[in-house]
Amino acid sequence: MNQMPRTTISEWKKIADFGTYHHSTHRGSDKIREKVHILFTEVFGDLPFARDDKLKILDVGCGLGFLSCVCAEYYPKAKITGIDTFEHASLKGSSLTKAKNNAVILEFSERIWFQKEDVFSSDYSKGKFNLFVSNLVFHNFGRKRFDAYQRLARWMTPKSYIVLADVFFDYKTDSRRLASHFSNVEERPSSTIGGAYKVLVMSEPKK
Length: 207
Ligand SMILES: C[S@@+](CC[C@H](N)C(=O)[O-])C[C@H]1O[C@@H](n2cnc3c(N)ncnc32)[C@H](O)[C@@H]1O
Known about the structure:
Strand order of the largest sheet: 5-3-2-6-7-9-8
CATH class: Alpha Beta
Number of domains: 1
Strand content: 15-25%
Structural class: alpha/beta
Order of helices and strands: HEHEHEEHEEHEHEE
Distance between the termini: 37 Å
Low-confidence stretches: none
Largest sheet: 7 strands, mixed
Number of helices: 6
Bound molecules: S-adenosylmethionine
Mean pLDDT: 94
Radius of gyration: 16 Å
CATH topology: Rossmann fold
């Protein structure tokens, strides 16, 4: 069934709780999410997918499901899987139950599935997902993030895309590593968030 939400993004924070990011307040986190929502919506508009494509999307480190809901809102026929360990200090008080509850409240629960899963032990066949998204996750992995980039590249086909938003404390190193896994790495304008936050679009995984 095609499920359309009755709420808009400005109402989300009144009825759903997407949590408090590390080094932020709850209000500050909501403000970040408003900007992230705009940035991802702009990027989605430039991807070579139609809004009503039946995309399969993986949200890596979904937390309480904020970005999964942004995807569900933008692509009304997409099916989204959100994976998270739900144990990391980068999102206080997070849980699988709370994430599922947010999807129910925002009326996306028929198209979003949350799973307790670690990105380092997950394995997906090529073609299972058309689009991979992630927000504020990979920098938490330290040097292990390079393994995580490689894992994503392995799960992609030549037609799939990654939209990866994160804080890049050493972007020179990350961009070199990313370029070794993807033929296309595009940095999108994201100065509204500030600091080392960047939104990258990757495609064409190298073999
Ligand atoms: C700052 S939160 C961001 C949550 C969400 N993406 C958002 O934008 O609201 C980072 C998330 O990454 C998750 N995470 C950390 N290590 C992970 C791993 N190995 N596999 C999957 N998720 C992980 C944490 O549990 C946390 O929910």
